[in-house]
Write a structure and sequence with these properties.
The chain has 122 residues and is mostly beta strands. The chain is built from 1 helix and 10 strands. The protein has a 6-stranded mixed beta sheet with strand order 2-10-9-4-5-6. A 4-stranded antiparallel beta sheet has the order 1-3-8-7, with no helix packed on it. A hairpin with a 4-residue loop joins strand 7 and strand 8. The protein starts with a strand and ends with a strand.
Length: 122
């Protein structure tokens, strides 16, 4: 059974930081590109970042570039999203997914977790 379990979300003040984790099982994580995708209340899916299986390719949405960092540990079957300088517009449900690029992610391809809520508010 494929499982993607996100953790690390919560309530944080503007300018603060959070680190999201996603533990994967049931598929060949080490050969899969992984992504983070978010959905703000009342809005559609927004691709955030993708990392290739070897970490040699990484891409970010313009809205998070310079503030978020994606990484992975293939030995632990885990992908991370370090989020710094958080803004109110980063408030969303953050999903971990095995989609390999923005187009695939926004079509909800691949395996998906249930999400972890990030709320940025003072």
């Amino acid at each position: 059974e494929v499982q993607l379990v996100e953790s690390g979300g919560g309530l944080v003040q503007p300018g603060g930081s959070l680190r999201l984790s996603c533990a994967a099982s049931g598929f060949t994580f080490s050969s899969s590109s992984m992504s983070w995708v978010r959905q703000a209340p009342g809005k559609g899916l927004e691709w955030v970042s993708t990392i290739s299986w070897s970490s040699s390719y990484i891409d970010y949405a313009d809205s998070v570039k310079g503030r978020f960092t994606i990484s992975r540990d293939n030995a632990q079957n885990t992908v991370y999203l370090q989020m710094n300088t958080l803004r109110s517009e980063d408030t969303a449900l953050y999903y971990c997914a095995s989609c390999q690029n923005q187009a695939f992610c926004e079509k909800k391809r691949g395996y998906w977790g249930r999400g972890t809520q990030v709320t940025v508010s003072s």
